[in-house]
Amino acid sequence: MAQPPTPASDTTPQRSALTQPVKLTINGHPYLLQLEPRVTLLDALREYVGLTGTKKGCDRGQCGACTVLAGGRRINACLALAVMYDGEAITTVEGLASGETLSPLQQAFIEHDAFQCGYCTPGQLCSATALLDEFKAGNASAATRDVRTRPAELTAPEIRERMSGNICRCGAYPNIVAAIAAVHTGRRTS
């Protein structure tokens, strides 16, 4: 597995009047970036840090290909300015695995063939990771029968609703739902 990129401050151009320092902890590694205030978190990750797992899909927050975790919450990195997350912990798809060991969701996506072209997969994985944490915390969704109470179970309709911000143009939705459900219930194929 490739080593994590070196902190971007090593290669970022010298500070100018147009840039400002932005401190991010990305996948457990600290970075000090010199960025213009208009640089999106997506562009900071891809262009300044070199983490290209997070994809630029629509660049309008509609497809979810750019989903990352900021402070444990899922966000569309294409809509977020990097300066807004100064001091935050960011997790990208590259940070879901532990060394050479895939996360349970990554393994389940493979086991359930939950991707085809794979372009949306990084965003799907980050979103699914947050989904499981949200459900565990008792957060309701629009599919929850009574949003005032903890959802009773993570059903397929619950999963579909909670993943609705992530588009798969190949249509691997049934397998994505199956992979998430398998991790939630602990029933995996291997």
What can you see in these coordinates?
This protein is 28% helix and 13% strand. It has helices spanning 41-49, 104-111, 121-136, 156-162, 173-185, and strands spanning 20-26, 29-35, 67-70, 73-76, 89-91. Strand 3 (67-70) and strand 4 (73-76) form a beta hairpin. The radius of gyration is 17 Å and the shape is globular. The mean pLDDT is 91.
Could you spell the SSE succession in H and E letters?
Answer: EEHEEEHHHH
How many alpha or pi helices? 5
Mean pLDDT: 91
- Overall outline: globular
**How many β strands by DSSP?**
5
Task: Please outline the helices and strands.
Layout: E1 20-26, E2 29-35, H1 41-49, E3 67-70, E4 73-76, E5 89-91, H2 104-111, H3 121-136, H4 156-162, H5 173-185
Parallel strand pairs: 1-5
Antiparallel strand pairs: 1-2, 3-4, 3-5
Give a short synopsis of this structure:
The protein has 190 residues and is of the alpha+beta class. It contains 5 helices and 5 strands, in the order E-E-H-E-E-E-H-H-H-H.
Keywords:
single chain, 190 residues, alpha+beta, five-stranded mixed sheet, globular
